[in-house]
Design a protein that fits this description.
Elements lengths: L12 H18 L5 H10 L7 H19 L6 H21 L7 H17 L14 H15 L1 H7 L13 H9 L4 H24 L3 H16 L8 H9 L4 H24 L4 H24 L24 H10 L10 H30 L8 H12 L2 H6 L3 H12 L7
Helix pairs in contact: 1-4, 1-12, 3-4, 4-5, 4-12, 4-13, 5-15, 6-9, 9-10, 9-11, 11-16, 12-13, 13-15
């Protein structure tokens, strides 16, 4: 035949998940569980991170059951990408950790499966937001510009005299962080993430969509200023993530993440084979499996010893019983590093506060958060705004994410600005 025969292999979304699942499990048993953190925890718990074939069979069955539910969600729904991301970063690592044997408890697996299922079933709940007024892009742009212009004034007053332009070329960064850290106050704590992760990225994106170059430039200047207010490079992450996912549909985003994650796993395994371990240590160990290890630590330390939110929303009513922060206590007891900040996440933070009830409360709050977002029919091009919030739920207190990482602000912006009805220009 002219031009020869061409075969095109079509890889489905299920194929991507299956490949990713087994590759990640391979990396875990090949390298991750042998990292000294795991060996130290095993010694403290008088156990071992082994490989249980019976648990492996259970995990494979659960994986395909989870995948069955995931495939029943429309690929055009916001819920599809939300559940896919949590499945990738939380559910699958928990399944893999469970194959290690009894050191990873059945209770932890049940918590993670419960989160997946509640997230799925609440995504089916319908809420009518059609009667809530929504502003168009032009109005939204000027509202965001006004709020940011007013909101940046206290930052300029307090941080302005200490701005170091050398930070722009990454010089004297840590000195600046030390100085600015001492000047922080509650207003900065509650608004910094809102401006850098939500308002300013949207100013730049809306400015580009509306071809308002002056406002795009204004947004960039604001972003540079917020970087100079503390020399934290994460300031740029919100904008970068929004721009990366701007042109993708939900299913394209999921395929993109799974495809390149799988390629990265293979690269990490090859590099580990030739004696270079840093790539998997800095990526998959840290993002995927440190949370599973911390789940073990937190449920062990706080068993029948709950805090009842005495270090957060109920601190005025319940006495906090320790001299150190919880994250430093876990760092000292389980990692022999009192300076280590062993951040907790959705499961561990809920458990330390009120055991199983605390975990279920966190699961319900996070699932309800995304249930609301799903009902707003937000266009796929704005998904990047939500990724950082999802990552925050994996490694921070739920109430911290909502109040100081911009979670509540993101809900408000989603309802009044990003809802699908806002297609008028």
């Amino acid at each position: 035949m002219e031009g020869g025969l061409k075969m095109k292999i079509k890889i489905t979304i299920s194929d991507y998940f299956i490949i990713y699942f087994f590759l990640l499990m391979g990396l875990y048993h090949y390298k991750v569980k042998h990292y000294f953190y795991w060996e130290h925890i095993a010694e403290l718990k008088q156990g071992h991170f082994d490989f249980s074939f019976s648990r492996f069979l259970v995990v494979v069955i659960l994986f395909f059951v989870n995948l069955y539910f995931l495939r029943k969600i429309s690929y055009t729904k916001f819920a599809f990408i939300v559940i896919s991301i949590f499945f990738t970063l939380l559910t699958i690592p928990a399944l893999i950790a469970f194959t290690s044997g009894e050191i990873y408890s059945l209770k932890l697996l049940v918590y993670h499966q419960t989160f997946f299922l509640i997230l799925y079933f609440l995504s089916k709940v319908k809420i009518d937001f059609s009667k809530i007024p929504v502003i168009n892009k032009t109005q939204a742009l000027y509202v965001l510009l006004s709020l940011t212009t007013i909101g940046i004034v206290p930052y300029l007053i307090v941080y302005g005299p200490y701005i170091n332009l050398k930070n722009l070329i990454l010089l004297e960064v840590y000195q600046t962080r030390s100085i600015m850290g001492k000047l922080s106050n509650p207003y900065f704590g509650y608004t910094y993430s809102i401006f850098t992760k939500i308002f300013i990225p949207l100013i730049i994106v809306f400015g580009l969509e509306l071809k308002k170059k002056i406002w795009v430039l204004t947004g960039i200047i604001y972003l540079l200023l917020f970087y100079l207010f503390g020399a934290h490079k994460t300031v740029y992450v919100g904008l970068i993530v929004v721009l990366v996912f701007y042109r993708f549909s939900f299913i394209q985003s999921v395929k993109f993440l799974l495809k390149y994650s799988s390629i990265l796993i293979l690269a990490c395994m090859f590099l580990a084979f030739v004696g270079y371990d840093y790539p998997w240590i800095l990526t998959f160990r840290r993002v995927h499996f440190i949370p599973t290890l911390l789940d073990i630590c937190y449920t062990d330390y706080f068993q029948d010893n709950f805090l009842y939110w005495s270090d957060s929303i109920l601190k005025k009513f319940v006495t906090y019983p320790y001299d150190l922060r919880v994250t430093n206590i876990i760092g000292e007891v389980y990692f022999n590093r009192p300076d280590m900040s062993a951040n907790n996440g959705l499961v561990s933070e809920g458990y330390m506060n009120f055991g199983t009830f605390g975990v279920l409360l966190n699961i319900f709050i996070v699932s309800s958060f995304f249930m609301v977002i799903n009902n707003l029919k937000i266009p796929a091009k704005y998904f990047g705004l939500f990724i950082l919030t999802m990552f925050s739920f994996l490694s921070s207190s739920v109430f911290t994410v909502l109040l100081t990482h911009g979670g509540v602000a993101l809900i408000i912006v989603s309802i009044f600005v990003l809802s699908d009805k806002r297609n008028l220009i």
